[in-house]
Design brief:
The chain is an alpha+beta fold and 485 residues long. 62% of the residues lie in helices and 18% in strands. Helix 3 runs antiparallel to helix 4 and helix 4 packs antiparallel against helix 10.
C-alpha cells in the first residue's frame, strides 16, 4: 500500500512538472518591451503615422510629375467609323448611297514655350508641399511618441506601486503571525491581533487596487501600440531602460528657445506655408501673361472603297465634246476615258499614300476673364499676409511651450526631492513604530496610522519621481527631432 502511494505521488509530481513546463514556457518566451522598442512599434503601426507617411509618398510623386511638365507631350490616336446612306465616294468623289468603313490614325506632339513662368512656379510649389508633408509627419510622430512615453511611464509607476503594496502586505502578514503567537502566549490582548488583521485586509485591498491599475496601464500601452493582445504586454522596468538627461535644466528657457527654434516641425511648416502662399500669388499672377506653345501633328487614313488602277476608253461613249471651232463651229472631240477600279489598296499602303503633317505655334493672349485673375491675386496676397502671422504664432507657441516644460521640470524636481525627504522621514518613523509595536509600547491602531502615513508618503514619492522623468522627457522630445527622422 505504501509503495502504491509512493507511485501515485511520483506520478503526480511528474504531471505537475509537465504542467509547469507548459504553463511557464510561453512566459519565458514572452517579449519584454523597452522604450525604444515601443517607440519604433508606434512609428511603424500607428494609423496616424501611416496616413502621414502616405501623404509624403503622394507629395513625392507630385514633385516628380511636375518635373516633367516642361517636356513635350506626345499622344497617338486612332478612330474607326462606318458611314451609312448618302455619302461621298472617296474614290470617285460622287455622292452615293453606300456603306463605307474608315479608319484614321494620328500622332500629336505639343510643348509649352512660355506661360508666365507657371511651370517653374508649380515645380517649386510641389517641392514645398513635399517639405510640408515631411514636417507634418514629424509633428505626428512627436505626438504619438509623447503618448507612448506617457503610457510607458504609467506602467512603470503602476509596477512600482504594486511592488510597494506587495512588500507592505508581506510585512503586515509577518507582523500578524508574530502577534498571533504573542496572543497565544497571553502577552498581548486579542484586540491587538484584530487591529493588525484589519490592517492586513486593508493592505490586501491596496495590492488588488495596484494590480488593477497596472493591468489598465498595460492595456492602454498595448492598445496604443496596436498589439493583438494589448493586455499581455510586459515592459523592462530597469531604471536604465528609461534614459533621460538633466542637461536641459542647465540652460535658460530663452537659450533653449533660440537654439532649437529652427528644429521645430510646426515652425518649419509655418515657414513653408508662408513660402507656399508667396509662390501661389506668383502662380496666380502668371495668368496675366500670354501663353506660347508649339505643336505638330501627323495623320493618315484608310477606307474600304475600290482603288483606281487605270483608265480606258469608254466603249459606249469613246469621245466627248470639249468645245467648237471658231470659224466652222465644228465640235472638238477628245477621248472619253473611264476609271478602272480594283480592290482597296492595302491598309499600310493607304496610310503611306494619305499621310499628312502639320506644325505650328499657338499663342493665347488673356484679354478679359471677368476679373477672375485680379481677385485671385488679391486673395493670394491676403493668404500670404495670413501665413506671415502664422509664423509668429507658431514661434510664440514654441516659446510658451519651452517655458512651460522647463518650469514644470524644475518644479517636478523640487517636488521629487521634497517627496523623497518626506518618504525617508515617514519610513524612519515607521521603523521606530514597528520596534515599539514589537515591544508593546504602542497599540496596533497607532501603528496603523503611522504605517498609513508611510504608505501615502511612498506613493507620493513614486508619483513625483516618475512625474519628474516625464517632464524631462517631454522637454527633451520637444527640443530634439522625433526618433526615426
Amino acid at each position: 500500500m505504501r509503495n502504491l502511494s509512493l507511485q501515485i505521488t511520483s506520478r503526480m509530481k511528474t504531471y505537475l512538472g509537465l504542467l509547469l513546463i507548459f504553463a511557464l514556457g510561453p512566459l519565458r518566451g514572452q517579449q519584454v518591451w523597452d522604450l525604444n522598442h515601443c517607440l519604433l512599434r508606434a512609428q511603424k503601426n500607428n494609423l496616424q503615422v501611416i496616413s502621414a507617411q502616405t501623404d509624403v509618398q503622394a507629395s513625392q510623386w507630385d514633385a516628380r510629375a511636375e518635373k516633367y511638365n516642361a517636356f513635350p507631350a506626345l499622344n497617338a490616336g486612332t478612330r474607326a467609323n462606318w458611314n451609312y446612306g448618302l455619302t461621298q465616294n472617296p474614290t470617285t468623289g460622287v455622292l452615293e448611297n453606300q456603306t463605307i468603313f474608315g479608319n484614321s490614325v494620328s500622332l500629336t506632339a505639343d510643348m509649352p514655350l512660355f506661360n508666365g513662368f507657371a511651370l517653374r512656379t508649380k515645380r517649386y510649389l510641389a517641392n514645398l508641399n513635399l517639405d510640408l508633408a515631411r514636417n507634418r509627419l514629424q509633428s505626428v510622430l512627436r505626438k504619438v511618441q509623447t503618448d507612448v512615453v506617457s503610457a510607458y511611464l504609467s506602467v512603470l509607476v503602476a509596477t512600482e506601486n504594486l511592488k510597494a503594496a506587495r512588500a507592505q502586505e508581506e510585512d503586515t502578514r509577518a507582523q500578524i503571525e508574530k502577534m498571533r503567537e504573542l496572543v497565544r502566549q497571553g502577552a498581548r490582548p486579542l484586540s491587538d491581533l484584530k487591529d493588525l488583521e484589519a490592517q492586513g485586509a486593508n493592505d490586501r485591498l491596496q495590492t488588488v487596487q495596484a494590480q488593477n491599475n497596472l493591468a489598465m496601464a498595460r492595456l492602454q500601452l498595448g492598445q496604443l501600440l496596436l498589439l493583438e493582445h494589448p493586455d499581455s504586454i510586459r515592459i523592462d522596468t530597469r531604471p536604465e531602460d528609461f534614459p533621460v538627461s538633466e542637461k536641459w535644466l542647465l540652460y535658460s528657457p530663452d537659450s533653449l528657445y533660440t537654439a532649437y527654434l529652427d528644429n521645430q516641425p510646426d515652425v518649419r511648416a509655418a515657414r513653408i506655408q508662408n513660402d507656399l502662399a508667396r509662390q501661389q500669388a506668383r502662380l496666380t499672377r502668371s495668368s496675366y501673361y500670354p501663353g506660347i506653345s508649339i505643336f505638330a501633328n501627323w495623320n493618315s487614313r484608310f477606307v474600304d472603297r475600290p482603288s483606281i488602277t487605270g483608265f480606258e476608253l469608254d466603249p459606249d461613249n469613246p469621245y466627248r465634246v470639249i468645245g467648237i471651232t471658231q470659224n466652222t463651229h465644228e465640235n472638238v472631240l477628245a477621248p472619253n476615258y473611264r476609271r478602272i477600279t480594283g480592290p482597296p489598296d492595302p491598309y499600310f499602303t493607304q496610310l503611306d499614300n494619305n499621310k499628312g503633317f502639320v506644325v505650328g505655334i499657338s499663342v493665347n493672349i488673356p484679354i478679359f476673364n471677368r476679373f477672375k485673375t485680379r481677385y485671385a491675386v488679391r486673395k493670394a496676397r491676403v493668404e500670404q499676409e495670413k501665413a506671415k502671422w502664422q509664423i509668429r504664432q507658431q514661434e510664440q507657441n514654441f516659446r510658451n511651450l519651452v517655458y512651460r516644460l522647463h518650469t514644470d521640470a524644475r518644479n517636478a524636481r523640487a517636488k521629487r526631492d521634497a517627496a523623497r525627504q518626506n518618504f525617508e522621514a515617514a519610513r524612519t518613523a515607521y521603523d521606530y513604530a514597528r520596534e515599539k509595536l514589537d515591544a508593546g509600547m504602542i497599540s496596533p491602531y497607532d501603528f496603523s496610522n503611522i504605517k498609513t502615513r508611510k504608505m501615502q508618503a511612498e506613493a507620493r514619492y513614486i508619483s513625483a519621481k516618475y512625474e519628474y522623468l516625464l517632464k524631462l522627457k517631454l522637454l527633451e522630445m520637444t527640443l530634439e527631432n522625433p526618433q526615426g527622422q
